Amino acid sequence: MATAHPFRLVRNPRHGTPGVVVLPEGGWRRARDAITAWPGYAPTPLVPLPDLAAALGLAALHYKDEAGRFGLGSFKALGGAHAVARLLSAELARQGIARAATPQDLESGRHAAATAGITVTCATDGNHGRSVAWGARRFGARCVIFVHPGVTAGRRDAMAALGAEIREVPGNYDDSVRAAEAAAREHGWHVVSDTSWPGYTEVPRDVMQGYRLMAEEALDALPAPPTHAFVQGGVGGVAAAVSVALRARAKGARLIVAEPDRAACLLGSAEAGTPTAVTGDLDTLMAGLACGEPSLLAWQELERAAFAFMAVPDLAVPPAMRLLARREPPVVAGESAVAGLVALILAAQDGEARTTLGLGPESRVLLFGTEGATDPALYARLVGEAGVDSAEPFPILTRSS
Ligand SMILES: Cc1ncc(COP(=O)(O)O)c(C=O)c1O
To answer: pTM of the prediction?
Structure first.
């Protein structure tokens, strides 16, 4: 049966094969203990969506809503800022200033004279840079963020408001990753990247350990373990963190990674059997997912643990945002937050995809709503002034034949 929007689904041929440990338990416990002790920490809500579950012929559907995470608007608050604290602590130890400075030590300003001389840098589509900028401000370091021309003014402003210096470089996200790395090498700065490559894994591993808290909170709050989880993929870091948590606590749950069809580097890597880049401007509404090169660490987890990969079109994104905005109370989901929801809706309506993924009336599905309105002006435009009250039909739910 055809659906209203085209999508691609690739079942992972290596699903279930053994692999390396990407996120060791010790690092996870350190991340959990550190982040849950930060001021203002609270688990984000897990929103049940029973009506949508019924419409899609599923037993249960839950949406982990990251819009309120530490006031930063996305789950990325968990990763970059944690990695900044870890990096500063390690650097103070290396300089012989403090043996094991905690986030609280750093935030107290006790080591401010030393940390002020340390610069952290990264590339971003918006959310990761905001987390790194927030961490740098809280823990007392200088911060320089590299963006590509596609990063919106709203997202740049949010990082600048946290004290970061914003530098635009030509090209796409992956080019800005290389620019941050080159600048760090030139000036002796420290890269706090959310993606990893051969020889650079320590910091992104800390970033991913922070993300794992989102998945663990969801598993804590669910009434029964999920049979399926849909999560969006950029470089794959958050999907890999979700995967590790699922393997530990929801044995047999199927992980489906959803990407924009114009930046589906994880799907392409699954097809090729090796990490494979997508090049070009990666032009997609789902700005946080506009990444063309998989993270090495993430791929090591996903290549053996993801059940399937899906590529979904931009056209389906605003209706999915409106579907959530129309709820009472409204769920505010940004463009990159709904890729998993779009993938689920498209797959659940397609007989072949439904069979491939094993979706049915017994399925308990978990979605990760990874951001809120991280660019408020864009959100307002896409959801529309009348979005919350709108009675428009939901195009993704309309079968074309
Ligand atoms: C809102 C949102 N969701 C998902 C992702 C994807 O995360 P990753 O790049 O770790 O795959 C991002 C990345 O920036 C994001 O901002």
So the answer is: 0.95
